[in-house]
Amino acid sequence: MARFDGKPVIQVKVADGINKAEELINEALSGNAPIYHTDHASTTVESESDESAGRQIYKHLMNGVSHMLPFVIGGGILIALAFLFDDYTIDPSNFGKNTPLAAFFKTTGDTAFGFMLPILAGYISMSISDRPGLAVGFVGGALASQGDSGFLGALVAGFAAGYLMKGLRKLFDYLPDAFEGLKPVLLYPFFGLLLMALLMTFIINPPVAAINTALTNALNSMGGSSKVILGMLLGGMMAVDMGGPINKAAYVFGTASIASGSYDIMAAVMIGGMVPPLAIALATFFFKNRFTKKEQQTTLTNVIMGLSFITEGAIPFAASDSLHILPACVAGSAVAGALSMFFNCTLMAPHGGIFVIGVISNPLGYLFALAVGSVVGMFGLALLKKPLK
User: Fold this and answer.
1) 150-172 and 53-84 are packed helices; what angle lies between their axes, rounded to 10 degrees?
2) N or C: which end of the chain has fewer CB within 10 A?
């Protein structure tokens, strides 16, 4: 933000950019935008005070998650391919690296996966305290990985690093101006990393590692009925707000479960996200009288989006008629998630939709669950939406 010092700047929430676009453009063209001022001590946006604490936390978390996802998705698919192309009978204890091709995919995927936690923590921290927080967050995430506190540890490390660096920056403001050049190259990295290491080693890692281990054991020890209920819950969450906080919470839980070896959870999460666009596509094809001509023309688009695991394809429908669209989609996704768990489907890749069907265990069961969930969603839409006049 320091680049915009002395220039007219309009700062608003993302939602205003979507819902008040014309108003914002007119304000910018009017020349009445406020002049932005920064100083040497802070380059972060100071307009956070009008945001709720929950909104700020969500924004910081999503900054970490969005930067982490390319490593998780690419690495996860490569690891899944390693198991697909390997021969289990050669050496069961080395499954995934028995053949040269499998070893290549597995090594590359594991390397990408290794960046997941440092990237998550680093960019959460950077979102809170700008550039000085990046290195401290990276190290906090790496220490979480080494200390067995896993995804939860990296999450805590990211926020701890961000607010730690924010505090250090305010503390160092009291130093003489002669120290200004030393802050970014010496003071912030040294004291930040030292304090972060102490926090992670003695305060954060021990309890979070215990919680992480208990959670992993609980997931692994779940019986059939419990897993079906969990799949139903996660599948339904994926359709509640289609890309919003609840959807992202379920998705992040699925990706974190991959790291802990619970691959059936990711399968239920992905199928829950695939159902809404497919249910809408089926409804616009078989129950045309419930939709406008323009909506009927989206059938093929929603089929492609649904099969590609792009839940956001259903957003225009949900936005225009949420009371009728969302309950039907949630029901269909919940049924699909439950069936995915019932058929013991597992998925090591955190994205890809139908294109990673080759690395899903019990693919026929998975396709059946997807079809049933989509049909349930379709009939739900047909029941809830009245024919148009």
Assistant:
1) 140
2) C
